[in-house]
Give the backbone structure.
Amino acid sequence: QVQLVESGGGLVQAGGSLRLSCAASGRTFSDYAMGWFRQAPGKEREFVATITRTGGASYTDSVKGRFTASRDNAKNTVYLQINSLKSEDTAVYYCAVDRFYGGSDVRRWLYWGQGTQVTVSS
């Protein structure tokens, strides 16, 4: 099994920054693609970023230039650095892993963490 625990969320003013972490355990971390997703109030869960096994990252258009995803395989951890926060970034942020999939379709990711709340105030 693969277990994921997100942390680092909280309340921050618009324009501020946060770094989210996702710690993984259970299987060989480096063999998995990883992704970040978020779910805002009243909305469906949506793709934010994906990270390949080798560290290449892709982002949804609304976060490009502000969010940076990275991974540290030695620490079994992935990160999401969030800068220049906007009110529309308010959501529960989830990380996910999958052995065979690394795309943007939320339905195809196998393992999920419990999520961490990010709230942006003005």
